[in-house]
Amino acid sequence: MISRRKFIQKAGLTASTLPLMPAAETLFNNQNQNQAVLRVAIMGLGSYANRVARAMESCTRAKVVGVISGTPSKVKEWQARYSIPEENCYNYETISEIASNKNIDAVYIITPNALHCEQTLQVAKAGKHVICEKPMAINAVEGARMIAACEAAGVQLLIGYRMHFEPKTLEAIALRASGELGKILFFQGLSGFRIGNPNQWRLNKKLSGGGAMMDIGIYSINGARYMIGEEPTWVTAQETKTDPIKFKEGIDETIQFQLGFPSGAIASCLSTYSMNDLDRFYLNGTKGQVEMQPSTGYGPISGRSHLGPLKAPVVTHQTIQMDAMAGILLNNEKAPVAVDGYEGLKDMKIIDAIFKAVSTGQKISLTNW
Ligand code: NAD
Predict the structure, then answer these.
(1) CATH number of the structural domain spanning residue 249
(2) 112 and 228 co-located in one domain
(3) Treating both helix axes as pointing N-terminal to C-terminal, what angle do 47-56 and 317-331 enclose, rounded to 10 degrees?
(4) In a domain, 324, yes or no
(5) Cα of 177 to ligand 1 centre, how many Å?
(6) Does residue 349 share a domain with residue 361?
(7) Domain C-terminal end among 140, 159, 178
(8) Which numbered atom of ligand 1 lies nearest the CA of 214?
(9) Which of 35, 120, 156, 336 is most open to solvent, judged by the fewest CB atoms within 10 Å of its CB?
């Protein structure tokens, strides 16, 4: 077990950067404890599911025990790789049967965005906790339905916000929360990559619900909120499209957007499918700054503040995430930054407002947090 003092030393933190650290410490301290293990079935065995499952091989509190897939050959592969018994394998037609499986605690939904809502409803009905990838849905109406369904079924809903457990991100948040940066004035978030194959689901509105904003721009939205530590009250946004054939109606290629916060802080962000390696956060306050680049990629995350380099340890994001989510689902532990359905819904409301700002050219008010 890493002691509090060792963690603080390892992370290069000072007493003034500690407000969020008890929860961050918990992430590390829990790793060697003898506790119940969260038994997870993964739904959708694509690229990110593979990354999550590989990372979970190093988890001490969570384990892949089942799969839900429409492709029998993938199911066989996963069964062999993770010793998954036949009775823990399902397809999209047999999801309801998970209800009678006492050896699965939670289902992690890692399918195309537009499927998340209905699949969450199905898993909740089967009485299992839901971990759902970002974006939680394709709009706020769906997000609210998911929350209501999970609450009605008495199961928890978590969204796969892996950065909410990432140590350098928590270090930057702790710096801001401690007052070290002074009054926060400005955040810049740049999130993008150059998307390839024009036939993939990410460019098909029926499956993706939108373009770069749903997929990668959401990192700047979410990051603006956790870096500034407030909820925005207005949004403005402008879209540019250089390739209307690849990026059809309803699939945004590049959107610049601005968020205003109650304290007067503003965020200026870029979401794009046309520029490579765009992954930078910058937070400016009256007394100091933090910049992170890369800021949300799989890592290692790197950054510095006016005090020097961020020093928190490099981790595999999904290993830390899933161990922490096990603590939340099994032991009612608290995430360092919320990962529940309401957290996902806030981002969906902002995405809805960004699309409205683009289509109307108006400044859109955001209320009812
Ligand atoms: P992917 O295309 O690699 O995998 C999607 C999987 O869903 C495939 O196995 C596919 O067979 C399955 N699927 C089930 N029904 C389908 C249907 N009707 N049409 C198409 N595919 C169907 O995609 P991915 O990159 O793994 O993304 C999946 C989800 O994970 C998305 O919501 C994405 O936003 C999210 N994601 C999150 C992160 C992160 O860092 N948190 C990273 C990548 C992806």
Answers:
(1) 3.30.360.10
(2) no
(3) 70
(4) no
(5) 34
(6) yes
(7) 159
(8) 34
(9) 35
Protein residues with CB under 6 Å of any ligand 1 atom: 44-49, 70, 110-113, 115, 133-134, 160, 162, 201, 207, 215
Contact by Cβ (8 Å): 329, 38: yes
pTM of the model: 0.93
| Beta-bridge partners for 303 | 292
Atom of ligand 1 nearest to the CA of 49: 26
Q: What angle do CA 127, 31, 176 make, to 5 degrees?
A: 90
Atom of ligand 1 nearest to the CA of 74: 9
Query: pLDDT tens-digit profile of 71-129?
Result: 999 999 999 999 999 999 999 999 999 999 999 999 999 999 999 999 999 999 999 99
Residue 331, number of CB atoms within 10 A of its CB: 12
CATH number at residue 78: 3.40.50.720
Query: Does residue 334 lie in a domain region?
Result: no
Q: Has 219 been annotated as catalytic? A: yes
Q: For residue 318, what is the enclosing H or E element?
A: helix 317-331
Q: What tokens does 235 get?
A: 């949004």
* Domain count of the fold of the chain: 2
Examine the domain organization and report whether 229 and 361 are in the same domain.
Answer: yes
Report helix, strand or coil for 154. coil
Tokens of 55: 């990372």
Tally of CB atoms within 10 A around 198:
13
The confidence score (pLDDT) of residue 368 equals 79
Q: Across all residues in the chain, what is the average pLDDT?
A: 92
Q: Is 134 a catalytic residue?
A: yes
